[in-house]
Amino acid sequence: MTGARVYVALGSNLGDRRAHLALARERLAALPGTTLLASSAIEETAPLGGRAQPPYLNQMVVLETTLAPRALLDACQRIEELAGRRRGERWESRTLDLDLVRYDGVRQEEPGLTLPHPALGDRPFWQAELDELARMGW
Fold first, then answer.
1. Catalytic annotation, pick one of 25, 74, 78, 99
2. pTM of the predicted protein model
3. Is 70 a catalytic residue?
4. What is the total count of domains within the chain?
5. pLDDT tens per residue, range 2-28
């Protein structure tokens, strides 16, 4: 398969956090035209946004996919819903959060989808996970 190399950030701070990340990896790998190539280690991080809430488990995965960016984002949101995610206020706790961080070298800005992710430079744990994947050859 020849497709785009995509980095997706996984996060969870409600319920069985490890199980939510495992579900995300499994469902991402099962998407049409998609292969899960590698995963970073899982790390615990403090929540963003200044709200009092439980810590997050975070992980970065790299995919190869033939899905277009919007189709992949839609699929990610369906996976979040499968894990019980309900969208409400920004920065609130969630069972699962999937963010498209990079999609090959694509630069795109449209409602609800900006590539690369606009917060990439503001989240040191994302950079650490990307660095780990780079050390693995991804």
1. 99
2. 0.94
3. no
4. 1
5. 899 999 999 999 999 999 999 999 999
